[in-house]
Amino acid sequence: MALKHTVQAADPLSKARACRIELERGVIETPVFMPVGTFATVKTLSSIDVDNLGAQIMLGNTYHLMMRPGPEVFKRVGGIHNFMNWKKPVLTDSGGFQIFCLPNSRKITEQGAIFRSYTDGKLILLSPESSIEMQQAINSDIMMVLDECVPSTSPLEELKRAMELTHRWALRSLAAHKHQHQSLFAIVQGGTDLKLRQTSAQFLTQHPFDGFAIGGLAVGETKQEREDMTEVATELLPKDKPRYLMGVGTPVDLLEAIRRGVDMFDCIIPTKHAQQGVAFTSNGKVNLVRSVYKYREDKLDSACDCHTCENFSLAYLHHLVKCKESLGWRLLSIHNTRYYIQLMKETRASILEGRFMDFYNQKIAAISVTDTELEGTSGILLPPALFQSKSRYGALTSSEGFEAASVSAVVESSESSLV
Amino acid sequence: MALKHTVQAADPLSKARACRIELERGVIETPVFMPVGTFATVKTLSSIDVDNLGAQIMLGNTYHLMMRPGPEVFKRVGGIHNFMNWKKPVLTDSGGFQIFCLPNSRKITEQGAIFRSYTDGKLILLSPESSIEMQQAINSDIMMVLDECVPSTSPLEELKRAMELTHRWALRSLAAHKHQHQSLFAIVQGGTDLKLRQTSAQFLTQHPFDGFAIGGLAVGETKQEREDMTEVATELLPKDKPRYLMGVGTPVDLLEAIRRGVDMFDCIIPTKHAQQGVAFTSNGKVNLVRSVYKYREDKLDSACDCHTCENFSLAYLHHLVKCKESLGWRLLSIHNTRYYIQLMKETRASILEGRFMDFYNQKIAAISVTDTELEGTSGILLPPALFQSKSRYGALTSSEGFEAASVSAVVESSESSLV
User: Fold this and answer.
1) Which of A41, A312, A418 has its CB closest to that of B325?
2) What's chain B's average pLDDT?
3) A329:B327 CB<8 A
4) pLDDT greater at residue B12 or residue B378
5) b/e sequence B7-46, b meaning 16+ C-beta within 10 Å
6) Residue A46 is nearest to which of B84, B313, B331, comparing CB atoms?
7) pLDDT over 70 for what percent of chain B?
8) Minimal Cα–Cα distance from A355 to chain B, Å?
9) How many helices (H) and strands (E) does chain B have?
């Protein structure tokens, strides 16, 4: 079965809502935060850890999983759930966002995106069909259509071209989607143009997708523009289907989007900030690199019930961060991920009890003291420069791009030979 | 109280023995492996993890802990146990071995070793007295005397000079040792010279140390030389005190030393090999980088009860190692550390049941197929080259060395100011 969606409560003073999404592998209660398991692991955490943190669903990145371990492994072991020992639902993105992060080493054609594998340098065509094929191999519970993601502040013509291509690709994805136990979400594009966003939402909602995402945000626009686009998109999305704001964001970003009617989120911020020694707490953001924490025997967040806060002091966390010990990254990843999950749980309770706006006002006041510093960093899975540095191979030449586009749309496995 | 030591069983066919060491913070049953918590964390693991793995005692490195977090933190928070939330015993080394790893940026005088802090470039004098002072601040349960560790294959004159200095430093350490709840171990030196080893053991055992370590091995000699020196040292060490072989080694090395009468071990091999994707199993060493594991749905070691083996497949571990995910390092650290602890537990049972040599023969046959490749890497905490690359500061000039030696023997805190 595809997912079953129920709205359980709608806030009277905003568009916030609490929903229930039933999937074969479990029920998701929204608003929900999905930890990002890029390579079938949320950085520093195992599936057991993520389960212990109370996550209801995890995200996997199709682009990265296509490179490693590759589709063949998923086919042989029976999908990502067996592979990583995670029994709850998984949502996979389409790979579109990661392709967007490769501006100098990919080529977009009508057929799809051609890029070089960073594991072996082979050319790969990521098309709507091959993305669905890969997501079927991964056997995720919710799949995303391949979209073309351009900078949200691109010229109108460019935004329109990318949106229209995204629409054609969405219909091809729908046609390629064969496994009825998997759900498929479409992605509303249109950059920061209100009319394009409306057009995109109106077009996509005429087709039988199981849910809708808002894509192409957190990639260059202001916080206000992001919130306006979110508002306009949710206005046109059907009430009876899940709404997912991709790649966003800080705790404040999530509250702003929930207020505007969004149900689902994913972001690498909790683990990325953890790597940099930054924690989210009920009193705002804490930078553990600072020596003011050197002798602090109290815990990171007195309101938190996570493993880190229950067992370790600020002084110890500061020390681990200073020593660049991977345990520091892990303990802060545990805390930050729990913080996001707990924030969603509290938000949901406030919606169910009809007091969301009070909760929202109180939370925003409590946590945005330091949180504003994070603006502009939300949602970027990997900064383009960092991302490209992972490839040992050069940019595509135009002839290479066209050659690959004209051959068959097969996803090449990166490491098919045994050594 | 200092430690209380009881021999519970002695193997009839070898010098292997099972002992019980009582300390204020817990009982240690030997043979025992002590995971190395360099910076107050066993790499990738928290104190809770190490406890769950069944460790009875953890090792801390005085040299590193002196740099970070520094003595002041330990004084303020009440020692390493509170700092890292570890309730069981801790053994601290003296810093001597790490100083040995800095051949171009330290100077040894009668007073002690002078070196530059790698955190702020300040000159630090590590003397027998300042090492004990630091270990008292750390508040470890077992302290080690400062020794001069030279390459085990140095010329006889050099080995003799270093041994005699080590003896004078041992007596100064004993004099500086004030806290009766802490125990103090001396270190037998003498390189690969049988007579010097005997002289060293005879000298040190005349003084009221609580236990004796065999130092200066696993630093250049052959496996046979190491085993001969171990044999000669244990021959002369008192039966009623613990014997500790510092920095050794592979699983086979441990069995060889136990056969020769050693009770206690520490080594970074379990976590260091984990970082490189190498695991120890009941069938020998496994290199998870190899693509032969790509599709293997079975577990790493069917005889292992660790969290990793109970939850994850070879295919998943191979994938994490290939992706250089820190979770791979962690899951293999969990497995390898558990492997060492379980090996010591099984070895102890065989001694208590009078069947050690059968156990030894069976184990050596089962695990040394691949294990021999590890020879020569055991015991080096940090390779000197790697170690030195951590310092932003140059080598000592001779005048700097003498200046520092002539000033007071105070351990400088590396980060005393708050920012």
Assistant:
1) A41
2) 89
3) no
4) B12
5) eebbbeeebbbbbebebeeeebbbbbbbbbbbbbbbbbbb
6) B331
7) 87
8) 39
9) 17, 16
Catalytic positions of B are 93, 266
The two structure tokens encoding residue B335:
């497995």
The reply to whether residue A294 touches residue B319, judged by beta carbons under 8 angstroms, is no
By a Cβ cutoff of 8 Å, what residues of chain A touch chain B?
39-41, 43-48, 68-69, 72-73, 76-77, 82-85, 290-292, 294-295, 297, 307, 311-313, 315-316, 319-320, 322-323, 325-327, 329-331, 415, 417-419
Question: Does residue A323 have a pLDDT over 50?
Answer: yes
Q: At what angle do helices B223-236 and B194-204 cross, to 10 degrees?
A: 30
Omega into A249 within 30° of 0, i.e. cis? yes
Q: Is the peptide bond before B261 cis (omega within 30 degrees of 0)?
A: no
Q: pLDDT tens digits, residue range B208-258?
A: 999 999 998 888 889 999 999 999 999 999 999 999 999 999 999 999 999
pLDDT digit string, tens, across residues B150-198? 888 899 999 999 999 999 999 999 999 999 999 999 999 999 999 999 9
Contacts of A316 in chain B (CB under 8 A): 40, 83-85
* Omega before residue B69 within 30° of 0, cis: yes
Q: Which residue of A has its CA nearest to B326?
A: A44
Q: pTM to 2 decimals?
A: 0.90
Q: What's the mean pLDDT in A318-337?
A: 98
AA letter at B1? M
Contacts of B39 (CB under 8 A, 6+ apart): A319, A320, A323, A325, B61, B64, B65, B68
Global ipTM: 0.90
Q: Is B341 left (phi over 0), alpha (psi -120 to 50) or beta?
A: alpha
B77 to chain A: closest CA residue: A297
- Least Cα distance to B310 among B10, B67, B3, B53 occurs for B53
The alpha-carbon gap from B344 to the nearest alpha carbon of chain A, in Å, equals 26
Q: What is the mean pLDDT of residues B198-202?
A: 97
φ, ψ at A161 (rounded to 5°) = -60, -45
